[in-house]
Amino acid sequence: MTLAEAAQKMRNGELMVFPTETVYGLGAMASNDNAVQKIFEVKGRPQHNPLILHIAENRQLDALVEIIPKTARLLINHFWPGPLTICFRKSEKVSDLVTAGLSTVCVRRPDHPMAQELLKELMEPLAAPSANLSGKPSTTSFEDAKRQMEGKGVFFLDGGSTPLGLESTVVDCSGESIRLLRPGCVSTEELEEVLGERVIDASSGERIESPGQLLEHYAPSGDLTVLFGKSEQRRQWMKEHLNHDESTLILGLVGSDDPSLPGHHEILSPEESDLEHYAARIFHFLNYCDHSGAEQIVLELPKSKDPLLPALLNRLEKASKGHIISLEGMK
Ligand code: TXA
Ligand code: MG
Q: Which of 210, 282, 314 to mutate to test the pocket of ligand 1 (most atoms within 8 A of CB)?
């Protein structure tokens, strides 16, 4: 299917799974309420969880929002196209179905050739959540997206693996202060540097303000544990806690490939054990856990001060339902 054909299908109200630089999205024309409603049905997504809009060019934003604050302008100039979603006060043009009745709308301009071309063909905003069933891990490869979304009457564009692998950072510029609603590949430090002001973390704890953050998320069917610690400590923990069979899957670090350890290991090479590579394949691993029927899952997390760590921990805390174990008192 060409991108022009894909665009035509979407104009006719069809849903399209398409790649972005973060994760695969499930898109519908934002102006078509029936198509938008179908997104909620296909994903099993609660109706109160709003969708973000995707645009091809900055000027499309004007029609969608009441005002573009100075702060948002700074962020747009610096980070778009890219993995940053910005929350604005919405204009009347944006349907309540998209925003789940909120007075704000989240918008981003993706930086992926296929997504950009599709959006340019349409020149209309697309409402698109991540292409996964509600509560399940996001998808970062065509195969994973297909596995979760097949048989639901939606169409697919194959863009291979998505390069970043974690969903966009969501930042709220609609109020007095700037608030982080979801950590992602653009770090708080980077945002603060561009803004010249503090960004308040509203992504966890009592301050949660993004409806999606309240829901169970990213969880594979098996029991997931995230382990921090020295190699010897991790080894010991696994010997004590894991079943010795193929239903145990471990995404491990270099040095964990010890035949006396339980379970099946997927080991990261030295080049891959930095957080960037780790983040890029985490959802693929969690999808693999599901379709291979893993019952016990362990993720060994590298020690790192990488700015990606908060975003990765945010996803893993949800995926593991808080089961993150620090074996040396560090997290
Ligand atoms: O990288 C991404 O952002 C991907 C790709 C496909 O673009 N999309 C994505 O969409 O992650 P979704 O729906 O899975 O996550 C969007 C998050 C949800 O947690 C939702 O609650 C929040 O953004 N959100 C959307 N509109 C909002 C609004 N007006 N106010 C607060 N939070 C909002
Ligand atoms: Mg999602």
A: 210
Q: Which residues pair with 170 in a beta bridge?
A: 85, 182
The C-alpha R_g of the chain, in whole angstroms, comes to: 20
| Beta strands 84-89; 169-172: pairing state | parallel
β 52-54/126-127 pair status: antiparallel
Question: For 135, left (φ over 0), alpha (ψ -120 to 50), or beta?
Answer: left
pLDDT band at 331 (very low <50, low <70, confident <90, very high): very low
Burial class of residue 190 in the structure, from the number of CB atoms within 10 Å of its CB (0-12 exposed, 13-18 middle, 19+ buried): middle
In the sheet that holds 104-108, the strands lie side by side as: 155-156, 16-18, 25-29, 126-127, 52-54, 104-108, 84-89, 169-172, 178-182, 199-201
Give the integer Cα–Cα distance in Å for 246 and 251.
13
Q: Does residue 173 carry a pLDDT above 90? A: yes
Query: What would the mean pLDDT of 165-186 be, rounded to a whole number?
Result: 97
**What is the residue-averaged pLDDT of the chain?**
91
Distance CA 214, CA 134 (A): 12
Task: Determine the Cα–Cα distance for residues 108 and 130; give it in Å rounded to an integer.
Answer: 13
**Quick one: residue 4, left, alpha or beta (phi over 0 = left, psi -120 to 50 = alpha)?**
alpha
Outline where 44-141 has alpha helix (H).
70-79, 96-99, 113-122
Q: Give the atom of ligand 1 at the shortest distance from the alpha carbon of 27.
A: 6
Atom of ligand 1 nearest to the CA of 90: 29
Ramachandran assignment for 255, one of left (phi > 0), alpha (psi -120 to 50 degrees), beta (any other): left
Q: Considering only CA atoms, which residue is closest to atom 19 of ligand 1?
A: 212
Per-residue pLDDT of 220-247, as tens digits, reads 999 999 988 887 888 888 888 887 777 7
